[in-house]
Amino acid sequence: MSKRLSVGAEIARLPDLDLAELRKRWVDLYGTPAPKYFRRGLLVRAIAYQIQVKAFGGLSEATKQRLREIAAAVSEGTFEVADLEPRIKPGTKLVRTWKKETHEVTALEDGFAWKGGHYSSLSTIAKTITGTSWNGWRFFGLTRPKAKTGRDIRGHFVRPPTGRNGTVVWLRTRQAKARKKSPGAANA
Is the CB of residue 125 less than 8 Å from the CB of residue 119? Predict the structure, then answer.
């Protein structure tokens, strides 16, 4: 507990340091000079992160590998948004009752465990349970977040589609349609 308090106090002092002190702290933590284009706020956040890494540990090797894979896919142009779908954390238990029998599946680092067996996908387990093809995520009641109009599932803006002549086609929302229909909208 005292370690957390001392790390918290050290991080709380960071915004009070001047730029030269922040750059020195960066060198102490990272072993290289801070990038010249980093603004003060980014320096503070990056230093705070590295302080926590030194105190409590950083990302797991599996997470680092996944981030490298995503970066490689982006640079190669093969990146798909579906690759960022939420993952089930290892150790998570999924429970589903089917025809009065309760089935418990445990998420592993590299698949799923069910009835003493190892499976690579939830769909395989769902098909074995039901005898028919199922989407495993849907069978176990897992849903992905709904995208808002004009945004992807992560909440980021999505560029609108272009028309035949290359102009942007803006999709109208219900509010825009309502304003267009209301008689006072033209005078406003």
Answer: yes
Question: 45 is in which domain, residue-wise?
Answer: 2-56
Q: What is the pTM of this model?
A: 0.43
Q: State residue 188's pLDDT score.
A: 47
Together in a domain, 126 and 159: no
Max avg pLDDT among 43-47, 134-138, 148-152, 163-167:
43-47
Please indicate, yes or no, if residue 77 is contained in any of the structural domains: no
Residues 127 and 150 in one domain: no
Contacts of 51 (CB under 8 A, 6+ apart): 7, 10, 11, 29
Residue 125 lies in a domain: yes
Q: Is the pLDDT of residue 30 over 90?
A: yes
In a domain, 108, yes or no: yes
For residues 115 and 124, the answer to whether their CB atoms sit within 8 Å is no
Is residue 61 assigned to a domain?
no
pLDDT in tens, 94-138: 999 999 999 999 998 888 999 999 998 899 999 999 999 988 888
